[in-house]
Amino acid sequence: MNVRLAFVCAALFASSMAMAREDQIILLGNPAGKQTVGADGNSAEYSYNDRGRGEHITASWKVDAAGVLTDYTGSGNDYMKAPVDEIGRAHV
Are residues 50 and 73 in contact, defined by beta-carbon separation less than 8 angstroms? Predict the structure, then answer.
């Protein structure tokens, strides 16, 4: 859960910059994963590999004019390869 929250926060921060970007995850000097944020700033893909285990999440979201998150969808698998399918919507 904490990894997903960090993922969403990082992706939302990147969305404010509205440009494509790819960040590498380095563990003990070795590539272990990456996060790619789409050029639209409203989608991202995160993957991490730790000896065959690790998350792979594809997410998209919408923010309102004030930058507040209104919709979120994420799918993929968690660290132990269990399916992840999340949907969040703000009701105002």
Answer: no
What residues contact 53, with CB distance under 8 A and at least 6 apart?
79, 80, 81
Task: Give this prediction's pTM.
Answer: 0.72
Cα 82 from Cα 9, distance rounded (Å): 22
| Residue pair 76/84 in contact by the 8 Å Cβ criterion | yes
Q: Helices H, strands E: what count in the chain?
A: 1, 6
Q: Which of 86, 64, 91, 89 shows the shortest CA–CA distance to 5?
A: 86
For every one of its 92 residues, what pLDDT tens digit does the chain have, with 9 covering 90 and above?
455 555 555 655 555 556 899 999 998 999 999 999 999 889 999 999 988 899 999 999 999 999 899 999 999 999 999 999 999 998 86
CA distance 84 to 74: 7
DSSP three-state, residue 64: coil
